[in-house]
Amino acid sequence: MKLSTPVVDPVKDIVKTKRIGLVGFDGVVAIDLAGPADAFAIANEAENDPKPSYEILIIGSSSQPFLSGSGLMFKPQRTFKTAPSLDTLIIAGGSGIRNPVINKSVSAFIKARAGSTRRIASVCTGIYGLAATGLLAGREVTTHWHDAHNVARRFPDLKVNGNAIFIKDGQFYTSGGATAGIDLALSLIEEDYGQQVSLGVARELVVYLKRSGGQEQYSEPLQFQAESVSRFTELTTWIHSHLNNDLSVETLAGRACLCPRHFSRRFTTEVGTSPADFVERLRLDEARRRLSNEDNSIENVGMSVGFQSADAFRRAFERRLGVSPSDYRRRFSSAAKVLSVQQQRRESKKLSKAA
Predict the structure, then answer these.
(1) Domains of the chain by range and CATH?
(2) Which residue pairs from 279-282 have beta carbons closer than 8 angstroms and sit at least 24 positions apart in sequence?
(3) Interval 129-141: pLDDT, tens
(4) For residue 183, what are the β-bridge partners?
(5) Averaged pLDDT for residues 9-15
(6) How far apart are CA 37 and CA 23, in angstroms?
(7) Structure pTM?
(8) Taking 80 as the threshold, does the pLDDT of residue 7 lie above it?
């Protein structure tokens, strides 16, 4: 699989074009490579000002094609020796990165480029190549939840959070498995060109939700489905897509074809919490995501996820999260503004050097 890159004017566009290097190898997880690559490629088609411009390069240890774990073939456009300067370097995951020979060559390339690369990221088990450089020492990181314990054991100087979708610590970004690489790419695009471009890419990719890094890899509905083998398996998906509907015990029991008392007892036994508690947790999780959009009033956010009043929303939010919706939004906005200022400073420095 070979991805095309945009044709750019080397004089006019050299400052705004961001070159993305994606490192692959035999045994790579195909979506770890293709998912982020497609996200950046779609961003190039966005109709915004400034118009996103990414040059996407697949980089291998040699010019020979490499085979993914699922059998897809990738053709590197550059090698570790011939790769040009990069804005962002992303290391995909896969069984191959555990091969000592592959790991050594990948980590050597990362280490050699770290000083001249603005952002360095790993997807899933790509962290094995990044962590081997020693550059992550003392930093907070994440990886696929299944590998978090092993990463923590092999690299005891890392602060491993096995639950986050992705984490940023300095110039380094680490993410969970598979589709978390797309979440990470969307966040990087948002850093570069803003939320509207990022959301546009998410729509084109038909991503169900644009998830922030702080969300859990193992969502509440998915965890419920994984633990349940009963008629409740499909109920969580329906609940999540109908949060602003009547989700009383009577309504849910009717969908499960059980009487309310029997439904409530069965639900609590299988899930470990009452139907009302489960619904409230889902509503607040979605509310946190919607609060990141400052165009939505706090009252509208609460109503949109099923709370009957702004006061009921505030009380539930404070009870569960220990902070009011307005304070939560303020903290989120402050962090986003800091990130924006840092990005603007980096771009200003680049422009000054180019001049």
Answers:
(1) 18-204 (3.40.50.880), 220-331 (1.10.10.60)
(2) 279/239, 279/243, 279/247, 279/306, 280/316, 280/320, 281/220, 281/320, 282/220, 282/221, 282/239, 282/240, 282/243
(3) 999 999 999 999 9
(4) none
(5) 39
(6) 11
(7) 0.64
(8) no
